[in-house]
Amino acid sequence: MYVEFDIPEINEYPEGFPEYWLKILFIKSPSERYQINALTSTYVRLVEAALVEYRLGVTKLKEFWQTHDSFNLGAMHRAISHFETCISNMDRATNCFRRLRRRQDPLSIYLNSERPAFATDPVFNRFRSIRNEVHHLEEMVMDGRIANG
Questions:
Q1: Which are the contacts of 50, defined by CB distance < 8 A and separation ≥ 6?
Q2: 7-59: per-residue pLDDT in tens?
Q3: CB atoms within 10 A of CB 114
Q4: Residue 29 pLDDT
Q5: Helix axis angle, 34-66 relative to 73-102, nearest 10°?
Q6: Of the candidates 73, 69, 75, the residue with the CA atom closest to the CA atom of residue 57
Q7: How deeply is 94 buried, as exposed, middle or buried, from its count of CB atoms within 10 A (0-12, 13-18, 19+)?
Q8: Contacts of 45 by beta carbon, 8 Å cutoff, 6+ apart
Q9: Tell me, what's the pLDDT at 17?
Q10: What does the pLDDT read at residue 1?
Q11: pLDDT at 60 over 70
Q12: What is the torsional sign of CA 4, 54, 123, 137?
């Protein structure tokens, strides 16, 4: 069997966003309002975590398919868990970003100057839908929405 991977590599920000963390620790927070600072830090933290989980998921998925002397279920299960966590983190990060854009703050003016695709309703709703499927799997199995097979 020939398996081809069509998984985009994400090479940007391999170390996360250390400049952000250094700036808020030693120079200045993005806002005078604690709510803005909390949402901003949560957003950055969740994006960093999503990047790490995505990369780990890709690594474990490839490990699963490149193991030829056994059936590497451990790698497959870890890949699934990493991708599930990535989706959950991106859903939460997108929610933080959208909330930051709605606040009355100079940062919101800046964030509204561009319309990144991840914050649009169709993309946000797709993340939310996938996240809900992952987080409500047990309910769907138990009430019969997911059938045997």
A1: 86, 89, 90, 93
A2: 998 989 999 999 999 999 999 998 889 999 999 999 999 999 999 999 999 99
A3: 7
A4: 92
A5: 160
A6: 75
A7: buried
A8: none
A9: 95
A10: 67
A11: yes
A12: positive
The DSSP line for 10-25 is --S-TT--HHHHHHHH
pTM (predicted TM-score) = 0.86
Residue 86, token pair as written in the block: 């990535």
The residues, any chain, with a CB within 8 Å of residue 56's CB and separated by 6 or more, are 78, 82
- Give the integer Cα–Cα distance in Å for 84 and 68: 25
Are 87 and 130 in contact by the 8 Å Cβ rule? The answer is yes
- 124: tokens are 């946000």
Residues 50 and 96 sit within 8 Å (Cβ to Cβ): no
Q: Domain coordinates of the chain in residue numbers?
A: 18-142
Torsion of CA 17, 23, 24, 26, to 10 degrees: 140
Residues with Cβ within 8 Å of 29's Cβ and at least 6 positions away in sequence, in order, are 37
